[in-house]
Amino acid sequence: MKRLIVDMDDVLADATGQFINFYEKEFGVLVSRESLNGKEEMERFPGHHKTVYEFTFQKDFFRTMEVKPQAQRVLAELNKKYELFIVSSAMEFPNSLPEKLEWLGEHFKFLHWKQFVFCGSKAVVYGDYMIDDLPHNLERFNGEKLIFTAPHNLQHNHFKRVNDWLEVEKLLL
Ligand SMILES: [Mg+2]
């Protein structure tokens, strides 16, 4: 079986949508997804970067994210064909590890906890395919790198791109 590495934030979970939700709660302004297109993570909310960064320390930030469309169905199929690991950074934000574990348990019941890898750096990971939204995670990976479209990565053109889970399905199943 080929080994497939899948990220959580902005791949399985709608992290961008969660930033927009928390921003609206804090500032009373609903930011459109389109307005974030092509902006790096640090440039997304001008003047409020520090507050937005601190959202990630708030309770339930990681626990209540929406699942990306079709992610459950396609991942269930991939899980039959690949040696699948969910690899997610969870050291920087203290709440994120238990919240991500609970989130996976709720939304991806068909996965075993042995398939979850919570880490500080993904440089330690190897496999045949990696799906991630962040170029710096893909750059150091040994296998085939697939960038999952998110507003903050549209300007990166040096990886094979998958726009959504239906495209992942076509490519890998
Ligand atoms: Mg991510």
Tell me what you see in this structure.
The structure is a single chain. With 173 residues, the protein is α/β, with parallel strands linked by helices. Helix content is 32%, strand content 16%. It has 6 helices and 6 strands, in the order E-H-H-H-E-H-E-E-H-E-E-H. The chain has a 6-stranded parallel sheet with strand order 3-2-1-4-5-6. The longest helix has 13 residues, at 15-27. The radius of gyration is 16 Å and the shape is globular. The structure holds magnesium ion.
Short description:
With 173 residues, this protein is of the alpha/beta class. The protein has helices spanning 15-27, 49-55, 71-81, 96-107, 135-139, 165-172, and strands at 3-6, 83-89, 116-119, 129-132, 144-148, 160-162.
Radius of gyration: 16 Å
Structural class: alpha/beta
**For the largest beta sheet, what order do the strands appear in spatially?**
3-2-1-4-5-6
Element string (H = helix, E = strand): EHHHEHEEHEEH
By oligomeric state, this entry counts as: single chain
Structure annotation, total helices:
6
Q: What is the general shape?
A: globular
Largest sheet, strands/sense/barrel: 6 strands, parallel
N- to C-terminal distance: 13 Å
| Uncertain segments | none
Helix coverage percent: 25-40%
Strand coverage percent: 15-25%
The count of strands amounts to 6
Unique ligands: magnesium ion
- Give the overall average pLDDT: 96
